[in-house]
């Protein structure tokens, strides 16, 4: 086994030990196909008021602008599918937000992997990314052989479905690269498109972000437009509709990450509990949760919109 293959095998074994479900490696280079798609997506205004999506266009498409001299993009997935879900009589939160903020949890494990590479292989330069910088994570995951992009634009894996986070290590070390994932196993299925109540899922694996329930309940800072009244199906933070109906998610298995376990009160809270939630309860239930992003006032706005 040559050195680049040996290093790749070593890294993947450590990633598995740290709890990552899958790990793949791609050559760090310009994403030509994605450049056209991103340009059209922005031109069509599918990013809504997410102005940050217009920033760092070149960096989003070329990892060598994020890490000087980078040669490899290591993509990893981390399962977050919960063992239990919220009660039926409840306003709903996307499953990824049940536990502690994934940015911190997964980033910590990614930094551990980076330190391992430094210790075992030698001094390298690199950066860790968990949905917090201009990185086309799904494109890199596909190039790394981890899965394919479904019609809902999320990465799908045959064995796991789509309930997982993606993370990347971009480093200036040459490694053995994996074969890009070539086959789209969605076929003629349109369950996610048909189920989306706001018609945010467009043909050709494209999402109109400005119509997505997650956009309205998290990203949008102004009042939610009355034109989408009655279309949220009780989702108050994020949305899992397109994932819940996806046939591949019948293979989802509960995660084993203690930090992703929900607060003891979360799953049993009813609509009445949410309507009466105080700021103190909000801070207690969502102490280290990504739900803090919308703040107490934002969650109240969302609940009021669903209630009225």
UniProtKB/TrEMBL annotation:
<keyword id="KW-0004">4Fe-4S</keyword>
<keyword id="KW-0963">Cytoplasm</keyword>
<keyword id="KW-0479">Metal-binding</keyword>
<feature type="active site" description="Proton donor">
    <location>
        <position position="131"/>
    </location>
</feature>
<feature type="binding site">
    <location>
        <position position="239"/>
    </location>
    <ligand>
        <name>[4Fe-4S] cluster 2</name>
    </ligand>
</feature>
<dbReference type="InterPro" id="IPR017896">
    <property type="entry name" value="4Fe4S_Fe-S-bd"/>
</dbReference>
<feature type="binding site">
    <location>
        <position position="221"/>
    </location>
    <ligand>
        <name>tRNA</name>
    </ligand>
</feature>
<feature type="binding site">
    <location>
        <position position="155"/>
    </location>
    <ligand>
        <name>cob(II)alamin</name>
    </ligand>
</feature>
<feature type="binding site">
    <location>
        <position position="212"/>
    </location>
    <ligand>
        <name>[4Fe-4S] cluster 2</name>
    </ligand>
</feature>
<dbReference type="InterPro" id="IPR004453">
    <property type="entry name" value="QueG"/>
</dbReference>
<keyword id="KW-0671">Queuosine biosynthesis</keyword>
<comment type="function">
    <text>Catalyzes the conversion of epoxyqueuosine (oQ) to queuosine (Q), which is a hypermodified base found in the wobble positions of tRNA(Asp), tRNA(Asn), tRNA(His) and tRNA(Tyr).</text>
</comment>
<keyword id="KW-0846">Cobalamin</keyword>
<feature type="binding site">
    <location>
        <position position="214"/>
    </location>
    <ligand>
        <name>cob(II)alamin</name>
    </ligand>
</feature>
<feature type="binding site">
    <location>
        <position position="196"/>
    </location>
    <ligand>
        <name>[4Fe-4S] cluster 2</name>
    </ligand>
</feature>
<dbReference type="Pfam" id="PF08331">
    <property type="entry name" value="QueG_DUF1730"/>
</dbReference>
<comment type="subunit">
    <text>Monomer.</text>
</comment>
<feature type="binding site">
    <location>
        <position position="246"/>
    </location>
    <ligand>
        <name>[4Fe-4S] cluster 1</name>
    </ligand>
</feature>
<feature type="domain" description="4Fe-4S ferredoxin-type">
    <location>
        <begin position="177"/>
        <end position="206"/>
    </location>
</feature>
<keyword id="KW-0170">Cobalt</keyword>
<keyword id="KW-0411">Iron-sulfur</keyword>
<feature type="binding site">
    <location>
        <position position="186"/>
    </location>
    <ligand>
        <name>[4Fe-4S] cluster 1</name>
    </ligand>
</feature>
<comment type="pathway">
    <text>tRNA modification; tRNA-queuosine biosynthesis.</text>
</comment>
<feature type="binding site">
    <location>
        <position position="192"/>
    </location>
    <ligand>
        <name>[4Fe-4S] cluster 1</name>
    </ligand>
</feature>
<dbReference type="GO" id="GO:0052693">
    <property type="term" value="F:epoxyqueuosine reductase activity"/>
</dbReference>
<feature type="binding site">
    <location>
        <position position="131"/>
    </location>
    <ligand>
        <name>cob(II)alamin</name>
    </ligand>
</feature>
<feature type="binding site">
    <location>
        <begin position="239"/>
        <end position="240"/>
    </location>
    <ligand>
        <name>cob(II)alamin</name>
    </ligand>
</feature>
<dbReference type="InterPro" id="IPR017900">
    <property type="entry name" value="4Fe4S_Fe_S_CS"/>
</dbReference>
<keyword id="KW-0560">Oxidoreductase</keyword>
<dbReference type="Pfam" id="PF13484">
    <property type="entry name" value="Fer4_16"/>
</dbReference>
<feature type="binding site">
    <location>
        <position position="60"/>
    </location>
    <ligand>
        <name>cob(II)alamin</name>
    </ligand>
</feature>
<keyword id="KW-0408">Iron</keyword>
<protein>
    <recommendedName>
        <fullName>Epoxyqueuosine reductase</fullName>
        <ecNumber>1.17.99.6</ecNumber>
    </recommendedName>
</protein>
<feature type="binding site">
    <location>
        <position position="166"/>
    </location>
    <ligand>
        <name>cob(II)alamin</name>
    </ligand>
</feature>
<keyword id="KW-0819">tRNA processing</keyword>
<feature type="binding site">
    <location>
        <position position="189"/>
    </location>
    <ligand>
        <name>[4Fe-4S] cluster 1</name>
    </ligand>
</feature>
<dbReference type="InterPro" id="IPR013542">
    <property type="entry name" value="QueG_DUF1730"/>
</dbReference>
<feature type="binding site">
    <location>
        <position position="242"/>
    </location>
    <ligand>
        <name>[4Fe-4S] cluster 2</name>
    </ligand>
</feature>
<comment type="similarity">
    <text>Belongs to the QueG family.</text>
</comment>
């Amino acid at each position: 086994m040559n050195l680049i293959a040996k290093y790749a095998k070593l890294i993947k074994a450590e990633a598995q030990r740290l709890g990552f479900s899958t790990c793949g490696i791609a050559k760090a280079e310009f994403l030509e196909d994605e450049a056209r798609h991103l340009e059209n997506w922005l031109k069509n205004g599918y990013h809504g008021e997410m102005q940050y999506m217009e920033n760092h266009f070149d960096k989003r498409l070329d990892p060598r602008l994020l890490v000087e001299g980078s040669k490899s993009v290591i993509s990893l997935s981390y399962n977050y599918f919960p063992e239990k879900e919220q009660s039926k009589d409840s306003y709903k939160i996307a499953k990824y937000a049940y536990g502690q903020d994934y940015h911190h949890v997964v980033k910590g494990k990614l930094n551990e992997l980076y330190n391992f590479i430094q210790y075992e292989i030698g001094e390298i330069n690199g950066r860790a990314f968990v949905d917090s910088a201009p990185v086309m994570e799904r494109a890199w995951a596909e190039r790394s052989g981890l899965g394919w992009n479904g019609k809902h634009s999320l990465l799908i894996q045959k064995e796991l479905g789509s309930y997982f986070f993606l993370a990347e290590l971009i480093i200036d070390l040459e490694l053995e690269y994996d074969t890009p994932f070539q086959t789209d196993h969605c076929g003629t299925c349109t369950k996610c498109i048909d189920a989306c109540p706001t018609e945010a899922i467009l043909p050709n694996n494209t999402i109109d972000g400005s119509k997505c329930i997650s956009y309205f309940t998290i990203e949008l800072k102004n009042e939610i437009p009355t034109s989408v009244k009655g279309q949220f199906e009780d989702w108050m933070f994020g949305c899992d509709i397109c994932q819940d109906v996806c046939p591949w998610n019948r293979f989802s298995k509960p995660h084993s990450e203690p930090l992703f376990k929900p607060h003891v009160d979360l799953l049993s809270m009813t609509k009445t509990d949410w309507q009466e939630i105080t700021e103190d309860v909000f801070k207690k239930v969502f102490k280290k949760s990504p739900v803090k992003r919308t703040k107490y006032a934002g969650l109240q706005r969302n609940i009021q919109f669903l209630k009225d």
